[in-house]
Amino acid sequence: MDSPLRRWRRRASTVLAALAVTGAGLAPAPALARPSSASGEQLTSLVNPFIGTQNFGNTFPGASAPFGMVQVSPDTGGQGGYDYQQDKIHGFSQTHLSGVGCSVMGELPLMPTTGAVDTVDPGAYRSTYSHDDEKAEPGYYRVGLKTYDIDAELTATPRTGWQRYTFPATDRANVLFNTGKANQRVYGSEVHVVGDRTVEGRVEAGNFCAGKDRHTVYFTATFDRPFASHGTWRGSTPRPGERDAAGEGGNGAWVTFDAEEDRDVVVKVGLSYTGLEGARKNLKAETADSYDFDATREALQATWERQLATVKVDGGPAERRRAFYTALYHAQLHPNLAGDVDGRYAGFDGKVHTADGFTPYQNLSLWDTHRPQNQLLQLLEPKVARDVALSVVAIGRDGGWLPRWSLANSETNIMTGDPVTPFLVEAWSKGLLAGHEREAYALLRKNALRTPPDESPYNGRAGIDAYLERGYVPSGLELGKDCPDKGGDNDCAHPASATLEYAAADASLALMAKGLGRTADARMFAARGQWYRNLWDSSVQQFRPRTTEGTWVTPYDPVEAGHQFHEGGAYQYQWLVPQDPAGLVSLMGSRKRTEQRLDAFFAYDKLLEDPARTAREDWISAPYDYYGKPTYNPNNEPDLHAPYMYLWAGAPAKTATVTRAAMTLFTDGPDGMTGNDDLGTMSAWYVFSSLGLYPVTNGGGFLAVSSPQFPSAEIRIGAYGKLQGGTLTVTAPGASDTRRYVKRAWFGGKDLRATWLDWDAVAQGGRLSFEMSDKPSAWG
C-alpha cells in the first residue's frame, strides 16, 4: 500500500502556482470557488467526453487543458485513437485531435503491465477493459485494465500529461514507452532511459490523410520514485538492461517498479516541438517538483469549470444541456499550444523561433474551423483567437506561404479552396490583427494571385492560373502538369467547389483591402467575388462544372457531379455563396423560388411530421457519404450555413424548424455525433445555433438571428481588440421544440425586426429577448 510519507509528500506539494504559467492565458481558479449553471449544476458534470467516440465522431475521452499541447488519452483503435465499440486498450498516448477524418497523432503511448516483459507487440500486451469500469470528465480519465488488475488515471497541464497507475501487489510493475507506434505513420524515433527516474526521446511522425507532412515531438517523462530495472527494444526484441534505442521501425523502452507495498506510480510527461530542452523547461515550469496527481486534476477541472462558465444556459431537457456543454467543451480543445513556456516554437522553415507578442498555436483545420469555431473563440476567448491568427501569420512569415490545413509545424495540403483568407479576414475585422494588418494582407494577396514556388511544400491555390484566365477552375486539368501537386488534396481535382471557395475568399479579401485603403485591390477582389456566377447554368438552375473550352460538362448529374465538388455535390454546394446570398436568390429566380428549393433540400414537409427521423434518414445515409444525394448534409461543412439561407428567402420561421431538427442529431451518448466533429466545428455550430445566433459570412460583421434552443442563456463576452467584454443575455421564455417560432424580438429594449445583429453591438453585451410561439409568425 501507499506509504504515509509518500501520501503526505504528494498532498503537500502543489502545481497550482505553476499552472498559472500556461501561455494559454488560463490561470486556474480556486477549486472551492467553481461557477455553476443557473440551476446550481457544476458545469463539468454536464460534459460527457465520450460523446462522439462512436459512429465516427472521432473525439477522444482523455484529459486536456483548454487549447493544450497535450491530450493524454486511451487508444483502442479508430481514426481518433479511441473507438467506443472496442474492448482493448493498447496504451495512453500524449497527443490527439478531436473529430478528424483521418488517423492522426496518438504519439508516445505509455502502457502499464505486470510480469515479465517478454513481448513488445501492442497486440499482445494490450489489456481488456469495460465501460462499466471507466470514467471521463473534463481534465480527468480513469479505467480499470482487466488483464493486469491495474487502475489507470489521466490528467494534464497545458504542456504535460500525467498518468497514475495503481498496480496489484507485485515486484514487476512495468511502464512501457512505445515510441515506434502512433495513430499515424512514424518515420523514426529514439528513446533513452536516464538515471533511475527519467525516460526521454523523440517521435517523428506524419502522413496525415496520405499527405507529405512531417513533424517531431520531443518528450521527457519523470517518475515520482526510482524504478528498479529497465530495458529497451528495437523491432520486436526486448533488451533488458539497455538504455537507448533509435532509428526507423519499432523502438521503445520500459521501466519496472517494485509495487508489493507501495502500489501506485505517478509519471508526468512534458512535451515540446523545439527539442528535449524545451520539454524539460515545460515540465519544470508547469509542474515544479510536484507529483501530486490529485492537485493537478483539481486545478485542471477548476480551469474547465471556469471555461465552461463563459456560457450559462438554463431550462430545456437535461439531455440537451449535456449535449450543449459537451459541445462547448469540444469547441475549446483546439487549436493547440505550439510553443514552449519561454516562447520558442518550431517554425515552418524547420528552424526554432521565439514568438514576439503572441503565444504560438498549431493544428489548424482551417477548411473546417474558419466557419463557426473560429468565430466562437473570437466571441468567448478573443485573446486566444488573436494568438491563433498571429500564429497563422507567423506560418506565412517563416514558411513563405499561408497554410490550409497545418499539423504541428508542417502543411498537410488537406482539403480545398482558400480557407485561410476568410479566416484571417474575420480576425482582421475584429481588430485581432492590430499591428500586423499589412503583413497579413501581403501574405493573403500573394496567396490569391499565384501559386507557391516549386520548392515549396504548399499547394496553395493550385487552380489559380486557370481561375484568373477563365474566371473559373475548369474540369479536366492534369495534376502535376496544369496544376502543382505536392500531396494531399488538390483544387484542380475538385474544380467546381474550388471556384466557389475562391470567389468567397476573394470577396472577403476585398473587405480587408478596402479597409486598408487598397482601393484598386478592393475593386479587383470584389469583382472576383462574383465569379461564382460563372458556374451557374440557368438551364438546369445549378452550379455546374465547365470545361477548358468554356462548355458545360456533359453528361452531368448534379447529385454525383463526378466528385468535381469536394465532399459533396451540386445540391450541397448550391448554397456556398456566403458573400452574396441576395445575389444567389436572384439567380434562383426569386425569394419564393429559393424558399421552395430550400424546402426540397431539407425535405421540409417531412421535417414538420417527424424531424428526428427525417434528419437521420433523409439527410444522412452514413457519416462519410458525402456524395449521391440531393439533401442537406449536417455532417459536413459546405452546407453548414444552409439553414440560415431561409433568412434571405424571407422565411425565417423555417430556419427554426431546420436547426431544431439538426439538433436532434446531438445526443448525450457516445454516438451523439453523426460524423466528424472536425476540431470542434460541428460543436461550435451547435453552440451558436442553440443561442439563436450564427456567423454566416466571414468579415461581414454581423450575426444571423434565429430561434434559441434554451429559455435563457448568459454569454460572457471576452475583452480584447474591438471586443469590449460584457454579458449578453438571451431570454426566450417557454422555448421548446414545439414553441420554437419567434413572434417578436428585442435587443437592448428596442424592437428587433431584422434577422441579424451587428457583431459590434453583440460584442458589447446587452439583452436579446424573444417572445416565442408555437406557430410561424411574420417576424423577420
In the sheet with the most strands, the strands line up as: 7-8-9-10-19-14-13-12-17
Helix content: 25-40%
Oligomer: single chain
Rg: 26 Å
Secondary-structure class? alpha+beta
- The gross shape turns out to be globular
Mean pLDDT: 94
Unreliable segments of 5+ consecutive residues: 1-34
CATH class of the largest domain: Mainly Beta
- How many helical elements? 22
CATH architecture of the largest domain: Distorted Sandwich
Quote the beta fraction. 15-25%
What would your notes on this structure say?
The protein is α+β, with helices and mostly antiparallel strands. The chain has three domains: 4-308, Beta-galactosidase, Chain A, domain 5; 335-529, Glutathione S-transferase Yfyf (Class Pi), Chain A, domain 2 (Up-down Bundle), CATH 1.20.1050.60; 701-780, GH92 mannosidase domain (GH92 mannosidase fold). The chain has 22 helices and 37 strands. The strands form ten sheets. A nine-stranded antiparallel sheet has the order 7-8-9-10-19-14-13-12-17, covered by helices on one side. A six-stranded mixed sheet has the order 20-32-33-37-34-35. A five-stranded antiparallel sheet has the order 5-11-18-15-16, with no helix packed on it. The protein is globular. Residues 1-34 have low confidence and may be disordered.
Write a concise synopsis of the structure shown.
The chain is an alpha+beta fold and 780 residues long. It is 28% helix and 23% strand.
